[in-house]
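REQUEST FORM: STRUCTURE PREDICTION
Request ID: SP-0412
Submitted by: Lab K.M.
Chain count: 1
Length (residues): 185
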Amino acid sequence: MTLITTFLTAIGLSMDAFAVAITEGMSIRKRMLSSAILFGLFFGVFQALMPMLGWFAGNILHAFPIAKWDHWIAFILLALIGAKMIKESTDTKPIAREHRHGLRLMVGLSIATSIDALAVGVGLSFLNVNIIATALIIGCITFAFSFAGIYLGRLIGSFLANRAELIGGLVLIAIGLKILFEHSV
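STATUS: Completed
RESULT:
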């Protein structure tokens, strides 16, 4: 996996956290900097840990003779995650949420926005990647997007939240197609 593909994957995975940060940013009136750092750290750490967990789980699957299908597994996982993000981007129902940033809420939001990264980690286990470097890139980019999302939420409101998930979903599907294409040539 190239560095560009890694960055695009990280950007795609960070879009759920970015969308949540934007919506949370719309409700934050005080302490913007500390809220942005808090969201960035929680989302970034979870987004970095989940692909590593998925990668370890995927490596267990390597004991089974599925190497000839690995690119299909990566493609299907990325396509499903991307499709889910695209579907969620069209959801017009408002999400009821607490506007406190307690530990329970932050952990819950962090897990919810990083489940996709777990599945991507499984797919990455079938490719030749340095999972630690990849996870660090994913975590850092998610931190940056989440940090910025808090401020953007305050500035532009709900205009961008659904579009961020749509773009992230499209990016993940494109990466899955690229992996599929590279292995079929």
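NOTES: The domain at 3-184 is CATH 1.20.1250 (Growth Hormone; Chain: A;).
Reviewed by: T.R.
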